[in-house]
Amino acid sequence: MKALVFHGPKDVRVDNIKDPAIEQATDVILKVTSTAICGSDLHIYNGMFPQPRNMVLGHEFMGIVEEVGKGVQNLKKGDRVVVPFPIACGHCHFCSMGLHTHCEESNPEHYGPEGGLMDGKGGALFGYTDLYGGYDGGQAEYVRVPYADVGPRKVPDGLTDEQVLFTTDIFPTGWSAIEWAQLKGGEVVAVFGCGPVGLMAMKSAWLHGASRVIGIDIQEYRLEMARTAAKAETINAKDADPVEMIRQMTGGYGADLCVDAVGMEADRTMLEKAMNVIQMEKGSMKVLGKCFDAVRRGGTVTVMGVYGTPFDNFPLHQWFDKGIKLFGGQSWPHVYIDKLLSLVQEGKVKLDDIVTHSVSLADASKMYQVFNDKEDNCVKVILKP
Ligand SMILES: NC(=O)c1ccc[n+]([C@@H]2O[C@H](COP(=O)([O-])OP(=O)(O)OC[C@H]3O[C@@H](n4cnc5c(N)ncnc54)[C@H](O)[C@@H]3O)[C@@H](O)[C@H]2O)c1
Ligand SMILES: [Zn+2]
Ligand SMILES: [Zn+2]
């Protein structure tokens, strides 16, 4: 089959490789019909997360069940499903608590309680390095889906791939950013980052009753997308200090909720890059710092952007003095996906209006570069195997 294979940083290629096969009785093999490139794939692409051997990437995908393991009860050949990006057994200590991204069965080699850099990780993710389980991903013609009774959800009739594909990752991720803050309605929500995750957080903020939604980015074309697809007010952080602007917009108080939908790959100066080497940090936590500045006293910050190393000068004093409620981590697609599919089916939310590129899987390598370098007004890429 054809698959997008990671060979090394900035080197991903569509190769011909062996088809996946059923390995456990609880597996299915999916014929992938649509898959997307995620901002998280860029951390591997850019070498932020190490991956020593070749691997098929991709954790946002959907398709048709092609082959069913003997132990699978809920799926049959021909079913059309979306698949949440974490791989979870469904019955361990953490899965039973609804914490599927902390599944203690799916990533036996690198799992542990520490949450360390190289080991002591959480549960596995599709196509997301050996440290996260070493499973091949779905940017391919076929993919093996373990624990097939736990993750995959049948797609309601009448919905296109484009309408539901993002229930696998970015919609539940944007939803988690808002849901975890337990809004009561009427809040001002500021979302740092107008990439796919930020845009989904903005859509989710409206669905949770926000009174104002503010999107912040440094790319004008993405701010434009935030205005059109997510009806947000916008701030270009290259032109103005977003913290000052948000305070001005909120009577000096700050936003009730700030979402970090950027993470460690925020734009960096040469000096910041040099400091990374000295401090053994990867990337920057400058956006998290802006969230702490821009949130009101007693407000909430949710961190969906990924951070991969410890950081010196974490503003602990500010967190304490302002009494900030801080949430973050891998999102909870297993918990939210059924509700989110219903919202799409009922027409309460539209997800496919952020797609800027829908191309053949054969063009995946080029599209990684285009998405990473923010060329051609690229916001979200769908690949068709
Ligand atoms: N927590 C989870 O479960 C989960 C799931 C999916 C993605 N993610 C992470 O969410 C983050 C965003 O994902 P994405 O797909 O939207 O990625 P993306 O790279 O397309 O978007 C990031 C956006 O941040 C903007 N940005 C960079 N520096 C900035 C700054 N200083 N101020 C404001 N904006 C800035 C970029 O211009 C870009 O639009 C990534 O770190 C990704 O790994 C987390
Ligand atoms: Zn993702
Ligand atoms: Zn589990």
Layout of secondary structure:
Elements: E1 2-8, E2 11-16, E3 28-36, H1 39-45, E4 55-56, E5 60-68, E6 80-83, E7 86-87, H2 93-96, E8 124-125, E9 142-145, E10 153-154, H3 161-164, H4 170-179, E11 188-192, H5 196-207, E12 212-217, H6 220-230, E13 233-236, H7 242-249, E14 255-260, H8 270-279, H9 286-294, E15 295-303, H10 316-322, E16 325-328, H11 333-345, E17 357-360, H12 364-372, E18 381-384
Parallel strand pairs: 11-12, 11-14, 12-13, 14-15, 15-16, 17-18
Antiparallel strand pairs: 1-2, 1-4, 3-5, 3-9, 3-18, 5-6, 6-10, 7-8
Helix pairs in contact: 4-5, 4-11, 5-6, 7-9
One zinc ion (ZN) binds at residues 38, 40, 59-60, 85, 169.
What do you see in this structure?
- This protein is an alpha/beta fold and 385 residues long.
- It folds into 2 domains: 2-168 and 331-384, Quinone Oxidoreductase, Chain A, domain 1 (Alpha-Beta Complex), CATH 3.90.180.10; 170-328, Rossmann fold (3-Layer(aba) Sandwich), CATH 3.40.50.
- 27% of the residues lie in helices and 23% in strands.
- It is built from 12 helices and 18 strands.
- It has helices at residues 39-45, 93-96, 161-164, 170-179, 196-207, 220-230, 242-249, 270-279, 286-294, 316-322, 333-345, 364-372; strands at 2-8, 11-16, 28-36, 55-56, 60-68, 80-83, 86-87, 124-125, 142-145, 153-154, 188-192, 212-217, 233-236, 255-260, 295-303, 325-328, 357-360, 381-384.
- The strands form 4 sheets. Strands 3, 5, 6, 9, 10, 17 and 18 form a 7-stranded mixed β-sheet that branches. A 6-stranded parallel β-sheet has the order 13-12-11-14-15-16, sandwiched between helices.
- Helix 5 (196-207) runs parallel beside helix 6.
- The protein starts with a strand and ends with a strand.
- The relative contact order is 0.15.
- One zinc ion binds next to helix 2.
